[in-house]
Specification:
Keywords: Redox-active center, Signal. The chain has 6 helices and 7 strands, in the order ααβββαβαβαββα. The chain is an alpha/beta fold.
Length: 191
């Protein structure tokens, strides 16, 4: 059997091709990574009218999103059927635990089943810091002025109830500096 000899140019060319392909793969994965809180949620100019959204929870509990007015907060939208949400929710739950009981994050399941099913979903995943709020995704979508919603999504709402920033993708709640980033974003709207 005759062996074929590889010259240095062929070897170098092949190596460079592999390096270029690896670089492209890494940049594609970078786009798939969760977005950092800053700069994604840094406040921009106020947009849209104040958000009015009816939230429901098990046992018939109803609350208006306007109950959070007077202080900035994050409206985090997710769905029980959303794969990226299932990955992100445990990070968000741990993040909310670090913030404590007065966490200015309002997670709301949209385009999901009713509040009882959402509560069972959260219990199955042992997510104890996320309340089983649900809302009508059509109403939220209309307010945003979009035909489709991206899940998960984090929306920075100012004290008057207006949209100031949004990450319509996963957020990196587990980053080492996530709490400091979050406090910076909230403080910017309290000034």
């Amino acid at each position: 059997m005759k062996q074929k000899q590889i010259d240095r140019r062929t070897l170098l060319s092949g190596g460079l091709s592999l390096a270029a392909a690896a670089s492209l793969c890494n940049s594609a994965h970078a786009e798939d990574r969760p977005k950092p809180i800053v700069p994604g949620l840094e406040p921009g100019p106020a947009r849209l009218t104040p958000l009015e959204l009816r939230l429901e929870r098990p046992e018939g509990g109803v609350r208006s999103l306007s109950a959070w007015r007077g202080a900035p907060f994050i409206l985090h939208v997710w769905a029980t059927w959303c794969g990226p949400c299932k990955i992100e929710l445990p990070q968000l739950d741990a993040f909310m635990k670090k913030l404590g009981d007065d966490s200015p994050i309002v997670p709301v399941a949209m385009s999901s089943h009713g509040p009882d099913e959402v509560a069972a979903f959260l219990k199955n995943l042992n997510l104890t810091h996320i309340d089983p709020w649900t809302a009508d995704w059509h109403e939220f979508r209309t307010w945003l002025g979009v035909s489709e919603l991206s899940f998960p999504g984090s929306y920075l709402i100012d004290p008057e109830g207006r949209l100031r920033a949004a990450i319509e993708d996963e957020t990196d709640w587990g980053a080492p500096d996530a709490v400091a980033q979050f406090r910076k974003v909230i403080a910017a709207l309290k000034e």
